[in-house]
Specification:
alpha+beta, Glutaredoxin, 5-stranded mixed beta sheet, Serine Threonine Protein Phosphatase 5, Tetratricopeptide repeat, about 300 residues, about 50% helix, about 10% strand
């Protein structure tokens, strides 16, 4: 399996994207300098293509997510990002600006679960999320993140490549698929984890406990990347397929349904579903999470 498979997977995401291909043009000269940077001002650049290009160049990606006209913080962050030096000798980065003010491009950023802007993301050349910052941007922060990527990205991509190769060689092995999915989820790469979770959830050869766990994580991954209807369908399918015999399946499915309805502000329905999760398997992790979610409902704990 190719180590850049993470890059080519497709899936939804919310955001506007202006791709900038090398912020540092002109910062250095001489035989050891990198080629001059080029700014891509297309209103809807292809984020996956930028990640694929970064993989070929073996360069990490630094992404700034803002929304034009949203706030002074967004405008300041964008100016800083466009002007700060992002290279030093022997170091290079692919900078990308995602502008959420372009509605057509919002889906492109959904994979990053954006709740506030400005947001600074550091990705490895293979697209693995390495750093995530929602604090105000400073030159020091940007430079620190560039250093973090230089130090950590290569090692993380090497581990990702090993896990992808193992999953490719053992397509029917739920252990290999879950190990890869868990690694991706630990870096908030939920979109890339989805096909591996789906493989285990749909495998009748996998043991029931692993199928339940994969199916719940699959539904939650869809929630994370702003696909609530897909999340609901997966949760309902889990309850229908495994729920009649496995209490944890009913608990996990109802947990996801409750989370989805709570996100949609359907609080009465969400409460019923979370209560059902607790009733189905009171000692399960899903019941504990449902209880924690209920405790955060308006009016609870007062």
């Amino acid at each position: 399996m190719k180590t850049c498979s993470l890059i080519h997977r497709k899936g939804p995401v919310p955001a506007v994207v202006l791709a900038i291909v090398a912020l540092l043009a002109g910062c250095r000269s001489g035989p050891d300098s990198s080629p001059p940077s080029v700014i891509n001002n297309a209103p809807t650049p292809d984020l996956d293509a930028e990640i694929a290009r970064a993989s070929i160049l073996r360069q990490p990606i630094l992404i700034l997510v803002t929304e034009s006209g949203q706030s002074h913080a967004d405008d300041r962050a964008r100016t800083l990002f466009e002007n700060v030096a992002v290279k030093s000798k022997g170091e290079s980065i692919v900078p990308v600006l995602l502008d959420l003010s372009v509605s057509r491009n919002r889906a492109m950023a959904a994979r990053f679960h954006i709740t506030n802007t400005p947001l600074l993301l550091g990705l490895s050349p293979m697209g693995l999320i390495v750093t995530r910052d929602q604090k105000p941007l400073t030159k020091e922060l940007v430079r620190n993140r560039i250093n973090d990527l230089a130090q950590r990205a290569q090692e993380l991509d090497a581990k990702l490549a090993l896990l992808e190769d193992a999953a490719a060689r053992n397509g029917n092995d739920p252990t290999a698929q879950l190990q890869l999915a868990d690694f991706l989820l630990s870096h908030q790469n939920a979109r890339e984890a989805i096909p591996h979770l789906a493989a285990v959830a749909g495998s009748e050869a996998a043991d029931p406990a692993r199928r339940v766990r994969a199916w719940v994580e699959l539904a939650r991954a869809h929630l994370w990347i702003a696909e609530p209807e897909k999340a609901r369908h997966e949760a309902e399918d889990l309850i229908a397929a495994l729920g009649p015999k496995i209490a944890e399946a009913r608990a996990g499915g109802n947990l996801v349904l409750g989370m989805q309805d709570a996100n949609a502000k359907r609080m009465a329905v969400a409460r019923q579903e979370l209560d059902a999760a607790i009733a189905a398997a009171p000692e399960s992790e899903y019941a504990r999470q449902a209880a924690e979610a209920l405790a955060k409902f308006p009016g609870e704990g007062k």
